[in-house]
Amino acid sequence: MALASELSYSFADTLNWENEEQIELIDGEISLMATPLRVHQEILSALFLQIANYLSGKQCRVYPAPFAVRPFEKEGDAPEDVDTMLEPDITVVCDPAKLDKYGCKGAPDMVIEILSPSTRRKDLRIKYQIYQRAGVQEYWIVDPDIKIVQVFQLENGVYNAPDLYTAVSTVPVGLWDDFSIDLNPVFAVN
């Protein structure tokens, strides 16, 4: 839910707040994030575990939320210059130069968002557009209610029509030819 305000905020502002709530910053507007449901966290954990195990010993890194992604930040930008900061559920970054003490500056390679009642619209529309415009190569949207995963691949700067996977599927990860995620344990939560 966006906070009503005529002010425009920057990433620098968020660094100075003594706030224990999770927030996102989109085009200078602050959005509070609701506490995730248990099923959301169990799905996040199951996905994260598979990705982390695969990436063990490799250059790419995977991060669960909270992890600050500033998708449009460029080299030399100061925190005052950054007006968009997102907290994806899972973020994969393969370029170590994009990592700093705050999180990821620039587009990560892969992002996974798990839909919840409070984030559904933002994940499906707003974040979809941001990730596409920023150049995130692979964007997954996980719907716990209907146990479906949509996978978007970036081609020529635009996401293709999504590949859809059900709870019994094994999903190939487009970033790597030798890795797929088994959705059985991901959706085996009650």
Task: Write a brief caption for the model.
By secondary structure, the protein is of the alpha+beta class.
Question: Could you explain the architecture of this structure?
Answer:
Helices cover 23% and strands 29% of the residues. Strand 1 (23-26) and strand 2 form a beta hairpin. The protein is globular and about 45 Å long. It has a single domain, classed as tt1808, chain A (Alpha-Beta Complex), CATH 3.90.1570. Strands 3, 5, 8, 9, 10, 11 and 12 form a seven-stranded mixed sheet that branches. With 190 residues, the protein is α+β, with helices and mostly antiparallel strands.
Features:
about 190 residues; tt1808, chain A; alpha+beta; three-stranded mixed beta sheet; seven-stranded mixed beta sheet
According to CATH, the homologous superfamily is: tt1808, chain A
Strand content: 25-35%
The parts where pLDDT drops under 50 for at least 5 residues are none
CATH class: Alpha Beta
Helix and strand composition category: alpha+beta
What is the straight-line distance between the termini? 27 Å
CATH architecture: Alpha-Beta Complex
Individual helix count: 4
The H/E string reads: HEEHEEEEEEHEEEEEEH
The share of residues in helices is: 10-25%
> Which outline best applies?
globular
- The counted number of beta strands is 14
Taken together, the total number of domains comes to: 1
At the fold tier of CATH, the topology name is: tt1808, chain A
Radius of gyration, in Å, reads 16 Å
Main sheet: strands, sense, barrel: 7 strands, mixed
- Overall pLDDT metric: 90
